[in-house]
Amino acid sequence: MSDKRKYPRYSCKIKAEIEIYEGTPEDIDVAQTVPVIGKGYILDISKGGFFLISNERVSVRSTIKAKYKMKKTAATSAGKVVRTGLLANNPSELASKFAEFSSRGDSYIAVELDKPLDDLTEKDI
Predict the structure, then answer these.
(1) Would you kindly state where each structural domain of the chain is located, as residue ranges?
(2) Nearest Cα to 37, choosing from 21, 23, 51?
(3) What is the DSSP string of the chain?
């Protein structure tokens, strides 16, 4: 099976503070909506998105912002949730790959970024 991803992915373990805005992205005014605040770990990142684990529950298409550091440089990325679920209920390779991190969160959240990260390479992580 070939990987059809647009950008290469990089494994990582980056602490993140997340803001979750429920509802459809077209209807949310992030300047006026109060987000749910949470924490998580980004375990996989690319120019186009990231995969994180958290104890927060989100819905597909929710807007999410993540604040994190890569090589001591602060970053904020925003996007929409494209996949989510409980690690324990997911029999896929994905869940088994990240099962060792279950003490850090029981849900996985896959995010597609609104704006791709510029020039992200493995050296940046």
Answers:
(1) 10-124
(2) 21
(3) -----SS--EEEEEEEEEEEE-S-GGG--TTTSPPEEEEEEEEEEETTEEEEEES----TT-EEEEEEEETTEEEEEEEEEEEEEEGGG--SHHHHHHGGGGGG-SEEEEEEESSPPTT--GGG-
User: 70-108: string of b/e by CB count within 10 Å (b at 16+)?
Assistant: beeeebebbbbbeebbebeebeeebbeebeebeebbbbb
pLDDT tens-digit map of 23-61: 776 777 767 788 889 999 998 999 999 999 998 989 999
Can you give the pTM of this predicted structure?
Answer: 0.83
The domain defined by 10-124 carries CATH number 2.40.10.220: yes
56 neighbors 71 (Cβ within 8 angstroms)? no
